[in-house]
Design a protein that fits this description.
By secondary structure, the protein is α/β, with parallel strands linked by helices. It contains 7 helices and 7 strands; from the N terminus they run βαβααββαββαβαα.
Length: about 200
């Protein structure tokens, strides 16, 4: 017996990057802003934290989803075991970028797909190595304001690409959605994902 076709997903996110990736993949979706409030817990394992936030976002929409799958995602930047969230201002963004300069960090995403019948919780890790950045490069990037509302203070799909020397893993995970992980998960449960099948 073949799997049913995938109904449009409810994306529990405000992120324009996640919307763009789903559009790129040809996955039908609607956006509903989650009611879940993220709370960082110091000392918690980063994978556990992003998975809990992804699950919380997805479950916050379960009551309005009907039979449709809900997708919750959370992404953080991790350096030396420390989670670097979204900078609150320009000086915090510069400090984050200076800490990442010349080093390899991890972009860790939790992903939750939830339906009335099942819930899948997964994670993805991509390693990103920054070039050694000069004070001038740091200043120019911070002045661009691209760091706003970005985990780790940079956007790899924009000007932030120039900060990066190497990526090991899923590029789209760094943008904000672990695409290969999502496609594999959906293909396990539905037919016709991304126009395949």
């Amino acid at each position: 017996m073949s799997a049913p076709p995938a109904p449009p997903i409810l994306l529990a996110s405000r992120s324009p990057q996640r919307r763009a990736i789903l559009e790129q993949l040809g996955i039908p979706f609607d956006v509903v802003v989650p009611t879940y409030e993220e709370r960082a817990e110091p000392g918690r394992d980063p994978v556990e934290e992003v998975q809990q936030h992804a699950r919380g976002k997805a479950r916050s929409l379960a009551g309005v989803a009907g039979d449709r799958p809900v997708l919750g995602v959370d992404t953080e930047v991790v350096l030396d075991g420390r989670v670097w969230g979204k900078p609150g201002d320009a000086s915090e963004a510069e400090a984050m970028l200076e800490a990442l300069s010349g080093k390899t960090h991890e972009v860790v995403s939790g992903l939750c797909v939830l339906t009335p019948g099942w819930e899948e919780l997964r994670h993805e890790v991509t390693r990103v190595t920054f070039r050694s950045l000069t004070p001038r490069e740091l200043g120019l990037y911070v002045a661009s304001e691209e760091w706003r509302d970005r985990a780790g203070g940079y956007a790899i799909q924009g000007l932030g690409a120039a900060l990066v020397e190497r990526i090991d893993g899923d590029y789209l995970n760094v943008v904000g959605l672990p695409a290969a992980l999502l496609v594999n998960l959906l293909a396990e449960h539905f037919s016709g994902v991304c126009g395949f099948g």
